[in-house]
Amino acid sequence: MINVIIEVSKYLMIFLMALYTYWNFSYFRFRDEWGQVRVCRKQNAAMFVMHFVAYLILYLKSEDERIVLFYLAQVVFFGAYIGLYQFFYRNLTRILVNNMCMLLCVGFIMLTRISFDKAVRQFVIVAAAALITWIIPFIMDRVWELSQIPWVYGGLGLGLLIVVWMIGNNSFGAQLSLSIGGFSLQPSEFVKISFVFFVAAVFYRSTDFVTVAVTTAAAAAHVLVLVLSKDLGSALLFFVTYLAMLFAATSNWLYLLSGIVSGCGASVLAYGLFAHVRVRVEAWRNPWADIDNRGYQITQSLFAIGTGGWFGMGLYQGMPYKIPVVEKDFVFAAISEEMGGIFALCVLLICLGCFLQFMMVAVRMDAVFYKLIAFGLGMEYLVQVFLTVGGVIKFIPSTGVTLPLVSYGGSSVLSTFLVFGVIQGLYILKMNDSEEM
Questions:
Q1: The pLDDT value given to residue 82
Q2: What residue ranges of the chain have pLDDT lower than 70?
Q3: CB neighbours of residue 281 within 10 Å
Q4: How far apart are alpha carbons 256 and 175 in whole angstroms?
Q5: Orientation angle between helical segments 209-228 and 188-205, nearest 10 degrees
Q6: What angle do CA 244, 333, 72 make, to 5 degrees?
């Protein structure tokens, strides 16, 4: 009987996820506020029903009563987060709050399936991150002086990366984190935000050749330190974001083409100089040649995706634990195996919807500083999703970055909450200005 329920439930969850995704894009058809509110309420209903069905299956398969309490705690959190955000920030973009909650919901479901203890820790971090970042829109609406200290952002960010390079903890061959008071912190997750503020503040003041040259040198220093730390995913993330922001600020095709050529040249040079780069590339080119060692993670990921097909195996019917570090940078493979390819594509479309919201905020902003912040954070978000999923499906070499709000990781969750808080703040700032005018 339980197997029948699991089989039916997986199709129901796919249907609800597809409905949510459809409403995610149909939201943009409505110009009146009431139409948008109706769409968001439908999304909330679909999310809560899907959440209930998933945790019902998790409970039936595990018979662990802790799962019931954990589910109820999540329901309270999601309800409070959505309701209180709307109460305190009247002019917020509701669709962005909904998408955050849906991505978190998917992450909680998969983490509970993989490791209950890690799911609980993630929930505590999410609750703390929500509380800490609650004030971000309020700050963005009132502190214009954020544009006056560009080199503070740049200096502090680069200094943190250097500290990690020198004394950071080694994780899978890369120096990524610092241990502070028993907690592990990955500074690059937060430096990527300060980096965007740095570039936006500098280009807000001037885009002449000298300014561009100095800023490019500072950006190159960030990337170089990350490469030396063997944090290749973050290095690529910073590089692409800077190149996109440079072109957005200057509209200079020569800068863009020069950056692309320089990036290609730097990649070839890094391949020749650093052994860890060659290992990653060889594992990507032919993982089957060393399937028991370097190619094990990616081959297991491909097996999982292929086994899941379009409709998935169903919760607790797959073997995601065979993929090393599946809860972090390979969580997309676990989703594809048990929830199915259609469900996984819907997750990607929700991420795309978040990116489109970022770009719409960037287009609406009048001040160049705010416009560049929204654009830069949007590019970082899109590139991070691309790097994660691209590595999972063997489109690009694995870079070790996480899927925002879905993967396990405290620093990633907190930094993503900060990013979404900044975007909400910019949207609220624009809507408040429009009302005053």
A1: 93
A2: 1, 143-144, 170-176, 181-182, 434-437
A3: 14
A4: 30
A5: 170
A6: 100
pLDDT number for residue 171: 67
Query: What's the confidence (pLDDT) of residue 22?
Result: 93
Give residue for tokens 């290992």: 279
> How much is the pTM?
0.92
Q: 161 vs 91, 166, 202, 241, 400, CA distance in Å?
A: 36, 9, 20, 17, 17
